[in-house]
Amino acid sequence: MYDLADYEVIDISKSEQDYQAIKQLLALSDLDLDSQVTIFTVAKINSKIIACAGMDRDIIKCVAIDPEYRGNQLNLTLMDHTIKYANEQGYFHLFLYTKPENIDFFKGCGFYPIVEITNLVVLMENTPVGIQQYCKQLSSLQKEGKKIGSIVMNANPFTKGHQYLVEYAANQCDWLHVFVVNENASLFSFETRIKLVQEGTKQFKNVTVHASSPYIISRATFPTYFLKDKAKINYAYMGIDLLIFRNYIAPALNISYRFVGTEPNDEVTKAYNEAMRYWLMDNTVSHSSPITVVEIERKTEGDTIISASLVRKLLASGQYEQIKQLVPTTTWDYLSANLDKFKI
Prior knowledge:
- This protein has eleven helices and 14 strands.
- The protein is α/β, with parallel strands linked by helices.
- β9, α6 and β10 form a beta-alpha-beta unit.
């Protein structure tokens, strides 16, 4: 039966019929349609879509097979076509998120678990040595010292608040590793953001600025389509991201501290700060050494708490003099030279 299936790649944003067919197929597996995914590899029998796998750049999402057609060969062939399509688009190192009960199925398709949040989600990749190779590369950047710290930041854009956090942490540590989230889902491109972080921290001689890897998980690409409860989505996202940091990244660089600014305004970021203490410090969630979380008060300018979101808001409304008070000279030099890019 499965030999009769035809495989093709479709864009559901261009066909209401395909959109509805995919949505109904996912529903049979108790899945929702991920808003990030429009490109699907599908298997059809007599023009009916019986299986699908979505692609969000290097992440495979929304894999579903009609219950009437489930069988090992169809599973494998669907994944083979999906991987082939990803490779044709230039993506060779692939990730997928799935429910823990599907681990064996995806192992049979050549994927390997990285980290699992019990009963909720597992992150897998299509190589048995991917994260080990990344950690080996990181290990070459180890620095001597008893107290090695870390910061993970988006820096969209880099502000005096970020600079203050780096300065404080660098003064507390023998060495500080700063990871800039590597994605282009922000107002400022990754290339711009990491350049501004490098320029704004070059006066600190015990700091290494890293481009973060796919192993520092972006909220923008974390899937929500198989987790119905928003609280569980946030819990799973935070757990995946922080356990990868604790189990793999921190040991590779001998990191024992992670610094973060307080978050009085954004509830999601505030919850993430609180989650750090659990996932990074609690001995019941990991066999890896705990990482001490240090939370410091956010820097203010007068009565104003400095934040990148405030800078973006001021930028959109053309309030440039106020921005000057909130960002380092290096950031302002970039902004003032590129104001046309940000006019609405």
